[in-house]
Amino acid sequence: MAYLVKQSHRAPAVTSPVPVDESLPRACVIGAGSSGIAAAKQLHLAGIPFDCFEQGRDIGGTWVLDNSNGQSACYDTLEINTSCPRMAFSDFPMPADYPPYARHDQVRAYFEQYVDHFGFRDTITFDTTVEDVSRSVDGRWDVRITGPDGTETRTYDAVLVANGHHWDPRWPEPAYPGTFDGEQIHAHDYRSADQLVGRDVVVVGAGNSAMDIAVESSSVARTTTWSVRRTEWVLRKFLLGKPSDQVALPGWLPWWVTAARLRIGATYAGSMTKYGLPAPTHKPGQSHPVQSDLIRERLDAGAVTARPGIEMLDGDRVVFVDGTSAPADLIVWATGYRVTFPFFKPELVSAQDNELPLWKRTVHPDLPGLYFIGLVQAIGAVMPIAEAQSAWIADTLAGRYAPPADDVVRRQMEAEHRRDKKQFYASPRHTMEVDFDHYLWDLDRERRAGRERAATRAPSPGAAPATTSGGGGVRRTLARLLLGAARWKAVGEVPRRGVLVGAPHTSNWDWVLTMLLAWRYGITVRLLVKKELFVGPLGWLLRRTGAVELDRTNPASTIKELLVEADGDDPWLIGIAAEGTRSRGDYWKSGFYRIARQTGLPITLAFLDVPSRTVGWGPTFQPTGDVGADMDVLRDFYADKTGFRPEGFTPPRLREEDRA
């Protein structure tokens, strides 16, 4: 289901000291904002030795007004844009008496309560700046810190970077032509409407902060002009009296479902073009959502004047690209932030144009032991994502999680980065964009898979998979209930993983039942299906159940790609479904045999017997090269299970190089 924290989810308070296992890797957490405390809490409860350094004296990062670390962008009217149940940490709901969208002071109080509830305040070292992080000669990490006791360098096995990405203002580059006689500030330095009283204010930007400042300015300034170079779809915070972000769907659904939900919200909210802004050049869902229930009211009242992008600055006026101009003695640039890491040398880590590809937005594959927490721009809140990332890293450091092969990590990272860039229009704002619910679902899936890898790196074919918890349990329960309701039974030995070749050919129920069988036993199955079936609702369902488009001209390459994606170490099995062998009359299809020969993979036999309502797995065997003998194994098995025994079979069309 979609992420939603209820009061019943509150974990018991930690009232006793948590023993530290000094044999585990030692970690360093940089920052005690929302992401830093999420990391510290997970390491603390896992018994992992660590230090957490905070530059100021406050917990909560950007949510602390006038934070002593000097980096907060908080202003006095700031409130969250994600409702409390969707922003809270999974085991610590926000207080029940909070409004649907909490104020910044309430969020700060919540973080303070979180730290004390789980008892790790004493693990945070305040008033301490991390000056430099570099690789040590032994491949670990040297961290130079400066605090009340001076400067020192400590060495760690892992570094968790949680320094935030809303603290280094990005100004227009290049600067607009012309000169300006008034004052210019970045939204990062805005604190209250006191800075706007009686002035001619121009607010530049289309994000949430720009709209908040324009709304405040409209009540106290002499004039307020809102300049938007690229119009966004402005959503409302409430839909039919309910926080709009709580109209959410499970994370395993495809991206277009989330995009459709955002389109509905945009349609309900209404267009901004009637206020003189240009129409958005992108669809809802192709940019980071922005929300405001007040900006339209102030525009309708004439208290805010909307204008397109700036053409030039002209003394005490700002000239816009449509030829109009506005008086100005204060420009507030709400133009976003740069992603920077002042403690890294640029040649080690940098984010040019805010772009830093990471695996699961967390792991830098070239720098073992370096992790990034909360370095995302989520369609939702960062806090649950930082919590999930931190739990994953804690599992890694504690030895409960094993990653896939390095080439798999890089392949997935590149694919995810391309996907995310494709989903959102090109902008420094979107280089870290993720779909909140899908990200949490995907990371949970990887975390469970890694725990399984750690528990048994090379199980024998035919062995039952290790029991896992989480989302996979839902699928297993669903499969058990559906198979039971249909009065189908599942039998046979359970392979650990499977690549099913041969379905669907005659009936879509072949692969539906096979998927249910796989889910029933928690097996990872990748159905190889011809490309022409990936259309419409069937195509969507195939993709959601893990199906892969089969390249019929070179099926072995498809299988090999799957092997790399899966891990490379765990055994993968090729299976065929009996029903899928009948599409050529009384002859067996035998493409699977050629694939098995080319890849060196074993064959696992799967069967579907409609009369007896039985679906199951048979034995696993390695192709011997004796085609006749191997086909006899197949015929004997299916004759025993289904009573179907064709007199002949299509001879496997083995390429010359396969026979060598």
Protein model, in words:
With 660 residues, the chain is of the alpha/beta class. It folds into three domains: 24-167 and 338-455, FAD/NAD(P)-binding domain; 178-333, FAD/NAD(P)-binding domain, CATH 3.50.50; 471-659. It has 16 helices and 30 strands. The strands form eight sheets. Strands 24-30-29-28-25-26-27 form a seven-stranded mixed beta sheet, sandwiched between helices. The two termini are 51 Å apart.
How would the blueprint of this fold be written?
Blueprint: E1 27-30, H1 34-45, E2 50-53, H2 84-87, H3 104-117, E3 124-125, E4 129-135, E5 141-147, E6 150-156, E7 158-161, E8 178-180, E9 183-186, E10 200-204, H4 208-220, E11 223-227, E12 234-235, E13 238-239, E14 242-243, H5 255-269, E15 290-291, H6 295-300, E16 305-307, E17 310-315, E18 317-320, E19 325-327, E20 330-333, E21 370-372, E22 377-378, H7 383-397, H8 406-423, E23 433-434, H9 436-455, H10 471-485, E24 489-491, E25 497-501, H11 508-520, E26 524-530, H12 536-544, E27 548-550, H13 555-566, E28 574-577, H14 591-599, E29 603-609, E30 614-621, H15 627-642, H16 656-659
Parallel strand pairs: 1-2, 1-7, 2-3, 7-21, 8-17, 9-20, 10-11, 10-20, 11-16, 12-15, 22-23, 24-30, 25-26, 25-28, 26-27, 28-29
Antiparallel strand pairs: 4-5, 5-6, 13-14, 17-18, 18-19, 29-30
